[in-house]
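User: Before I run my own analysis I want an independent prediction to cross-check against. Here's the chain; please return only the structure tokens and, at the end, one sentence I can use as a sanity check.
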Amino acid sequence: MNTRRARGSAGAACVALLLALTPVLTPAMSATAAGSPAPGAESDAVPETGTGRTVIGDGHIDIGARFDHGNWTVQIRDDTTRPATWRNTTDVVLRVGDTAKTDVPESEEFGFLGDPGDQVWLLPQVQRDGVLWPGWNSQEPEVASTVDREVNWQLTGVEGPGDFVLFLNGSFGTPKILFDGRKKLPQETGIEVNSHVHGNWAFTEPGTYLLDVRMAARTKDGKNHTSTRTLQFSVGPQDPGRAFAAKPADEGPDAASDTDESIAPLWWGVGAASTVATAGAVLVWRRGSSGRRRTPSSPANGPRPEGDQR
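Assistant: Structure tokens:
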């Protein structure tokens, strides 16, 4: 991290960030902002994929796999509309405004975010007014009814002007780093079927970030399904429309395999969707503006996180 700033109120900054990172230890009905749809209320989503470009900078969204007219794909569920709408990732820029900016506290536990006083743009695990609240889920009805056990979620590449970190809080607010972009990508985690998870998304510099993600699963009929997509984030005061001009991964049709080749299981003991799991963390590290990294999938590349399941 390049920015170093002295802070006379470092203690206050630490308290502020710790409050922002306070975990929610409640079941799926945990509170959301007034007027927001309940996260994961999948039955209320429009069955057709939404059209047209949109910038989302406030309210609840989820990244998830779904069957769109029988085709497995990663999309963004937009809960800022009534009814909720699933959208293609190329049509969505997720805006991280300056309302999300905070300072890295003195606490050594948050040293992975930078030095004390460094600024980060943080989308917190707990919903906050005026700040985007992104999560991820495996609750789309056809996914929930047909997938065997879980969806495998991989981060396969990161491109941006600074570092990107996704982590979750432990029961006492202590973060655990489970994915580390300084190590070989891709790294992976499991999303148990019919579960919904939120975490802390942090960005260290303003600008456009492209996150390549892949979601794969085996359905109960023995077929394997894989989709790779790119999430587009606009961080800081820039025009978010600039992120649409970035070059994401190919958004062509995804092939659904009909073979019996196994997808590495990640049955590491996460509870049911209504169970509050011990939280974990994801760290993805990226320096400068060098090209995106893409390497073959390897289940051994990363540890398996625990989620704040709602």
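Sanity check: The chain has two helices and 20 strands.
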